[in-house]
Amino acid sequence: MTTRITRRALSIGTAAGLGAPARLAFAKDKLTVVMSSFDMLFWVTLTAQALGYFGAQDLEVDIVRANGGARSLAAVAGGDAQFNIGAPASAFRARARGSDVMMIAPAVVQYVDNITMSGDWARKQGITAQSTYQDRLRALRGMTLAVSSVGGGADQLVRFLCKQAGINPDRELTITAIPDGANMLAAMSRGRIDGFVIPPPTGEDAVRNHGAQPLIWAGRGEVPQLDGFVYIGVIARESWLTRNREVAIRFLRAQQRAMTAVHNAEEGMRAREAVWNGWHSRTDKGLFDEVWRNAIPAYPHSVAVEPAMIDRIVAFVNETQPEPLDAQATRSAWTNDYAAAALQQT
């Protein structure tokens, strides 16, 4: 049964629009965009909001934090929001079960779960900044690694890497569930774990303030097989897209403009400051700037969807998860049509 999120419930996590241009005399098209948090996975969309790119496309966008990927997707599937910035694999599974959700653009194109090790483990294994990728893979053997949940994305990444290294993840290392980055940091500082797997900014914090070292940071493209992996995409219902084609194209134009800004030195600085001021002003500025700098390679240069992106998602999911993605359902669960039109008109 699909869980519906009412507009009243959605309004609790709403992010205010920043830097929006003056309202025109006519009404703008109103959209609700749902995401699970305001962290680096969603900074392209937050940039489009903060720098007024949605407003420039005559869109009035309400950005909502739904506190969870499943709730975000359910909001779109149930008609309470128009766009979900979320995991394509979840949308593909929903499509196979009868939903009409589909991916129309990438938003993050790296697998952003990063493996960070304690300074002690780095010294014990002889791992330095100059160590090869193969040496780093071998350093997984014997580790006690924390993930937020067994069976989740971080756990899948570890098992994928262990297979590359010829390591049995159930016998030659220990994977333990520790929810929340702060708890992982505490466990590592006490010597209970040798490292952890989690998206930014916990790894940067550990390196910056706790003597830790990067082991394999997939978010920087360090895993060749996952370089270009669409971790987060733009999800919408096919039925809504058909009725609102021009609105969807304008939304993607704003996304494209934000992507271009993030990768531009001058505009990227404006975007970074606007996102920090709007959603992260309580975060240490130096740490935020470091996370932003590390995150840039994870953002695509284009909203275009390519078949190779989908093939990479399907291959990884079907190798690491017990329930494979349905090939036929997946073929109908994405389109480049709206992105192509947005790029043509940009």
TrEMBL record:
Pfam families associated with the record: NMT1
InterPro entries: SsuA/THI5 (IPR015168)
Residue intervals of the SsuA/THI5-like domain: 46-264
Database matches in PANTHER family: ALIPHATIC SULFONATES-BINDING PROTEIN-RELATED
Name of the featured protein: SsuA/THI5-like domain-containing protein
Species whose genome carries this gene: Neoroseomonas lacus
